[in-house]
Amino acid sequence: MPGFHDFYVGYDPASHQDRMYGAGASGYYVFDVTQVEEPKLLASVTGVAAVPFGHTITPSPDGRYAVTETEYQYAPLRIFDLKPALEGQVKTLSRPVGAWTARWQGLPHNTEVRWPYVFVAAYEDGVHVVNLMDPTNPYTVACYDTYDGPNQQGMVAATHVLGRVFNGAFGVDVRNADGLIVVSDHTTGFWVFHMDGFDRWNGHDRGMPNNSSAQDWDHGPDGAPKPDRTSLR
């Protein structure tokens, strides 16, 4: 993979930096992109066993933990504690602090973090919600199998390297206002879910910054300078 595949850009309230979390060649990287013309590498995750390239990276609201994915069969989600690298204690990280998979023969795919939960589109294994309160011991709290077809019947073009697990739940997103969960499935289409007890998400309810992939256009991320108004409402 010559460049970045998936990435996440968000504001870090502790450092007052705009940060880009990129998954690509050899692993995962965190950049300070406050000055977009002069990005600065802050941390890297490289030399990880069985991770020839990074596919997806999603940080926790405070930017400390990263949930990462590598796009081949049998690869679990790996969770990294970025703190030692961000504080300059190590040059790069190479050991995850935790890992999770729905089924060892499968492949968890795209993720959305709404601390302490990770919402996972897990291809043939449907959608899963994982509790990450203890990043060293993530565990499933909810799941739904959106794909009831045969296993190992996914994209033929990828079989030479990645396996044939590319079918089922592909993408996932979460609406913070009411906890709506949406999932896209290669075969069965579009799904909408509600998880009991998850009626909205605000990071402050969990002792975290109220920052996620869903931008609050009226208020902006925690810690950022506040504009007078960003919508016409």
Descriptive overview:
- By secondary structure, the protein is an all-beta fold.
- The protein has a single domain (7-206), classed as YVTN repeat-like/Quinoprotein amine dehydrogenase (Methylamine Dehydrogenase, Chain H, 7 Propeller).
- The chain contains 1 helix and 15 strands.
- The strands form 4 sheets. Strands 1-2-3-4 form a 4-stranded antiparallel sheet, with no helix packed on it. Strands 5-6-7-8 form a 4-stranded antiparallel sheet, with no helix packed on it.
- The chain is globular.
- 40% of the residues are buried.
Provide a quick synopsis of the model.
The protein is mainly β and 233 residues long. The protein is 2% helix and 34% strand.
In whole angstroms, how far apart are the ends? Answer: 43 Å
CATH superfamily: YVTN repeat-like/Quinoprotein amine dehydrogenase
> Order of SSEs, N→C?
EEEEEEEHEEEEEEEE
**Which assembly state applies to the chains in this document?**
single chain
Mean pLDDT: 91
Could you tell me the radius of gyration in angstroms? 18 Å
Q: What CATH architecture would you give? A: 7 Propeller
Strands of the biggest beta sheet: in what spatial order?
1-2-3-4
What about the largest sheet?
Answer: 4 strands, antiparallel
Number of helices: 1
CATH class: Mainly Beta
Q: Residue ranges: pLDDT <50 for 5 or more in a row?
A: none
Task: Using brief descriptors, characterize the structure shown.
34% strand; 4-stranded antiparallel sheet; single chain; mainly beta; 233 residues; Methylamine Dehydrogenase, Chain H; 1 helix; 15 strands; 2% helix
